[in-house]
Amino acid sequence: MIDETKGFTLARTFAATPEEVWSAWTNPDEAAQWFHPEGASTPRESVEMDVREGGRYTYTMVNDADGTRYVTGGVYREVSPYERLVFTWGDPLGDPDETPVVTLVFTPTAEGTHMSFELRGVDGAEGDEYFYDGWDSALNVLGEYLSRP
């Protein structure tokens, strides 16, 4: 089992509906456009998603500077459209009970959607240049994606 005392939370408010934010997380065509930190990319052909409880997903992030590839994936644990999405995140073939867990909560607001992102099972803090900074950067890319006309 992962150590659930470890982890961190990030939050963003997007000028987008919960349906639009949900789609960015669950539609492979959309995820390929933002599911990576700044300075990386996600080839569309690498994204596979079976968005249902027990379904799996996988994608490959590519470091744009040196071409290093990182295959990542997991299992969807909870799927409540437009409200909540829970999934493991790490080695796509890893034991889901030994893999960090991401919980997303989407709350409609007057400005759009407030999204809470929580990663449990790993340490992370601002400036770590790893888990925290990577996800913080990826959520920035998501914000840019959602603000496109």
What's the gist of this structure?
The protein is of the alpha+beta class. The chain has three helices and eight strands, in the order βααβββββββα.
- Approximate shape: globular
% residues in beta strands: 35-45%
Q: What is the C-alpha radius of gyration, as a whole number of Å?
A: 14 Å
Q: Quick one: biggest sheet? A: 8 strands, antiparallel
Count the DSSP helices: 3
Q: Percent range for helical residues? A: 10-25%
Pfam families: AHSA1
Family: Belongs to the AHA1 family.
List keywords for this structure.
globular, 149 residues, alpha+beta, single chain, 3 helices
Structure, explained:
β7 (101-108) and β8 (113-120) form a beta hairpin. Strands 1, 2, 3, 4, 5, 6, 7 and 8 form an 8-stranded antiparallel sheet that branches. The radius of gyration is 14 Å and the shape is globular. The chain has 149 residues and is of the alpha+beta class. It is built from 3 helices and 8 strands; from the N terminus they run βααβββββββα. α1 (18-26) crosses α2 (28-34). The mean pLDDT is 96. Residues 16-146 form the Activator of Hsp90 ATPase homologue 1/2-like C-terminal domain. InterPro entries: ASHA1/2-like_C, START-like_dom_sf. Belongs to the AHA1 family.
